[in-house]
């Protein structure tokens, strides 16, 4: 049965409302200027290293808030697939990486290599969102595909040889899936304030992929602790988080 709204997705609901309320609070209290990171002057001149921990608190741009809320709403299917417990543990396990890696890469790698041209990391949980998006890409199958042609056939060609015209249009068309529109709002976030926003998106995607492949040390510990259940004698149960190939999540009764 297809469920709408935030049914069976309380953590996703908290994230969506948190993104909106956080932006409103930052705007009303005039604190949105304290969230983003500029390596110079924030880090090297003023020594505000606490920004490394707070820059993901909220978005400071109304357009980014809109697209982030839409993206998190669309990604609620991940929570329904995994369950709220695994979904929350994923957020906790990847939070240290999505929070610290982008500012460290910007400060100690990209800015020196670009001779100071790349200096700004925009505020907002873009890496966390893209970590979820990477798992959505890998775990959720598409339901249908469709093609879009960049041009239309002329009436004379269609009348003379309709079969050949249709084949030509079909060969030059672009194929999309039912998941294509889900990627548009996150793409807007990634391109909103390049190169900083693109860095945050790339790190988030890499962290999400690494979590799925069990190469994040802290994440592996949390996953193993979560998979241990007192109802099965403390043994680990295998966790299937993928709908490709008709997998499912075993439940311990």
Poorly predicted regions are: 231-240, 245-253
Strand content: under 5%
Q: What is the overall number of helices?
A: 12
Given helix and strand content, the structural type is mainly alpha
Distance between the termini: 23 Å
InterPro entries: Rhomboid-like_sf (IPR035952)
Region (Disordered): 231-253
Subcellular location: Membrane
Keywords: Membrane, Transmembrane, Transmembrane helix
Summarize the topology:
Layout: H1 10-28, E1 37-38, H2 39-43, H3 51-54, H4 62-74, H5 76-82, H6 84-113, E2 120-121, H7 126-139, E3 145-148, H8 155-160, H9 162-171, E4 174-177, H10 180-190, H11 196-212, H12 217-227
Antiparallel strand pairs: 1-2, 3-4
Description:
By secondary structure, this protein is mainly alpha-helical. It has twelve helices and four strands; from the N terminus they run αβαααααβαβααβααα. It has helices at 10-28, 39-43, 51-54, 62-74, 76-82, 84-113, 126-139, 155-160, 162-171, 180-190, 196-212, 217-227, and strands spanning 37-38, 120-121, 145-148, 174-177. The strands form two sheets. A two-stranded antiparallel sheet has the order 1-2. Helix 4 runs antiparallel to helix 10 and helix 7 (126-139) packs antiparallel against helix 10. The chain starts with 9 loop residues before the first helix and ends in a 26-residue tail after the last helix. Mean pLDDT is 83; it is low at 231-240 and 245-253.
């Amino acid at each position: 049965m297809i469920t709408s709204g935030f049914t069976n997705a309380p953590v996703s609901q908290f994230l969506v409302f948190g993104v909106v309320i956080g932006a409103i609070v930052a705007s009303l209290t005039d604190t949105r200027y304290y969230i983003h990171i500029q390596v110079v002057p924030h880090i090297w001149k003023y020594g505000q290293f606490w920004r490394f921990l707070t820059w993901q608190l909220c978005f400071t741009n109304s357009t980014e808030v809109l697209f982030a809320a839409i993206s998190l709403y669309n990604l609620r299917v991940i929570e329904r697939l995994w369950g709220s417990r695994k979904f929350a543990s994923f957020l906790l396990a990847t939070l240290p990486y999505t929070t610290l890696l982008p500012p460290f890469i910007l400060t100690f790698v990209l800015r020196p290599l670009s001779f100071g041209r790349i200096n700004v990391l925009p505020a907002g949980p873009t890496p966390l969102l893209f970590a979820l998006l990477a798992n959505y890409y890998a775990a959720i199958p598409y339901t249908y595909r469709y093609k879009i042609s960049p041009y239309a056939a002329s009436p004379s060609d269609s009348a003379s040889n309709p079969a050949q015209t249709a084949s030509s249009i079909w060969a030059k068309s672009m194929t999309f899936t039912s998941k294509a529109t889900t990627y548009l709002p996150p793409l807007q976030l990634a391109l909103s304030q390049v190169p900083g926003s693109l860095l945050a998106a790339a790190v988030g995607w890499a962290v999400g992929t690494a979590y799925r492949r069990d190469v994040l040390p802290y994440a592996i510990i949390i996953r193993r602790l979560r998979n241990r259940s007192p109802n099965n004698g403390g043994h680990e149960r295998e966790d299937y988080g993928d709908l490709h190939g008709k997998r499912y999540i075993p439940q311990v009764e």
